[in-house]
UniProtKB/TrEMBL annotation:
<dbReference type="InterPro" id="IPR003593">
    <property type="entry name" value="AAA+_ATPase"/>
</dbReference>
<dbReference type="Pfam" id="PF00005">
    <property type="entry name" value="ABC_tran"/>
</dbReference>
<keyword id="KW-0813">Transport</keyword>
<comment type="similarity">
    <text>Belongs to the ABC transporter superfamily.</text>
</comment>
<keyword id="KW-0472">Membrane</keyword>
<dbReference type="InterPro" id="IPR017871">
    <property type="entry name" value="ABC_transporter-like_CS"/>
</dbReference>
<dbReference type="GO" id="GO:0005524">
    <property type="term" value="F:ATP binding"/>
</dbReference>
<dbReference type="InterPro" id="IPR003439">
    <property type="entry name" value="ABC_transporter-like_ATP-bd"/>
</dbReference>
<keyword id="KW-0067">ATP-binding</keyword>
<feature type="domain" description="ABC transporter">
    <location>
        <begin position="33"/>
        <end position="260"/>
    </location>
</feature>
<keyword id="KW-0547">Nucleotide-binding</keyword>
<dbReference type="InterPro" id="IPR050166">
    <property type="entry name" value="ABC_transporter_ATP-bind"/>
</dbReference>
<keyword id="KW-1003">Cell membrane</keyword>
<dbReference type="InterPro" id="IPR027417">
    <property type="entry name" value="P-loop_NTPase"/>
</dbReference>
<protein>
    <submittedName>
        <fullName>ABC transporter ATP-binding protein</fullName>
    </submittedName>
</protein>
Length: 276
């Protein structure tokens, strides 16, 4: 199965008679994602309780929390892969009732199609959407170049390192030009050095694309290096216990940030939040 769930047209996602639902009055017009008093139960277990979160258009949010606190559950709800037990989620003013075409979702472990080259993995989603080959190839060339993979376009999965696979998976997601990108620990499988190489590249891509991003990570340094805000979830039932703005200018150099007092303070605050 593909690790990339580009969320295809879904019957539940068709425009509703009477137009899209309107945003609540207190939601700013620049809000892209609005998680509104969302709770989720699985049987007897309450996994999320009253989660409220507003994410602006083009904003980059990192979601951190202890294992099992409900991060992936929240991401799945934003993706429209499930409906919340209570509350609602809106994207660009429309209630999420199912998968949305322009939401991209990428997971920790790539699952590139082994019989397709890097080039053809990048174009896979475009092909499913019936984009003509000439345009697909143009986009693949563009993303291979953006991701430093020009020389790897003809290689198959087995001929790519883990870092390269993750970049191809990212290219496949980005080629579909999502306006919302959900990332569930996309760098977790990478070694420290590869991660350090990829992160600035990724931050640059985000800055150029204007995509709204929700990144789930266990790595506080990764969260601070990439995000505009670090949102901390408490233990079950998952709820938001802290929302920490990250004030550092971009591009950010993680190594030099480590020496800054502000950085250490943010790190300390987030760690305290994780324990609550
Ligand atoms: N479909 C489901 N049915 C029943 N329980 C579920 C389901 N999905 C998740 N859970 C439970 O909900 C809780 C939260 O899971 P979730 O995967 O959202 O946590 P997480 O914060 O992403 O964890 P991790 O950081 O370990 O990936 C867990 O206790 C999990 O067992």
């Amino acid at each position: 199965m593909s690790n990339l769930k580009i969320l295809e047209d879904h019957p539940r996602n068709l425009p509703k008679a009477g137009g899209v639902d309107m945003l609540a009055e207190n939601v700013s017009t620049e809000t892209k994602i609005h998680v509104d008093k969302v709770s989720q139960r699985f049987g007897q277990t309450e996994v999320l309780r009253d989660v409220n979160l507003q994410i602006k258009e083009g904003e980059f949010i990192a979601l951190v929390g202890m294992s099992g606190c409900g991060k992936t559950t929240l991401l799945n709800l934003i993706a429209g892969l499930a409906n919340p037990s209570r509350g609602q989620i809106q994207i660009a003013g429309a209630t999420v009732n199912g998968p949305r075409k322009s939401t991209g979702y990428m997971f920790a472990r790539d699952a590139l199609l082994p019989w397709r080259t890097a080039n053809d993995n990048i174009t896979y989603g475009l092909q499913l959407r019936g984009v003509p080959k000439r345009i697909r190839d143009e986009k693949a060339r563009y993303w291979l170049r953006q991701l430093g993979l020009e020389a790897a376009g003809d290689r198959f999965r087995a001929q790519l390192s883990q870092g390269m696979r993750q970049r191809v998976a990212l290219g496949r997601t980005m080629a579909l030009e999502p306006d919302v990108l959900l990332l569930d620990e996309p760098f977790a499988a990478l070694d420290a050095q590869t991660k350090q190489d990829i992160m600035p590249q990724f931050a640059q891509l985000w800055a150029e694309s204007g995509t709204t991003i929700v990144l789930v990570t266990h790595d506080i340094d990764e969260a601070i290096a990439l995000a505009d805000r670090v949102v901390v979830m408490g233990r079950l039932p998952g709820r938001i216990v802290m929302d920490v703005p990250v004030p550092f200018k971009r591009p950010r150099d993680v190594n030099s940030l480590l020496d800054e007092a502000d950085y250490r303070e943010i790190r300390h605050t987030v760690r305290k939040g994780l324990m609550s």
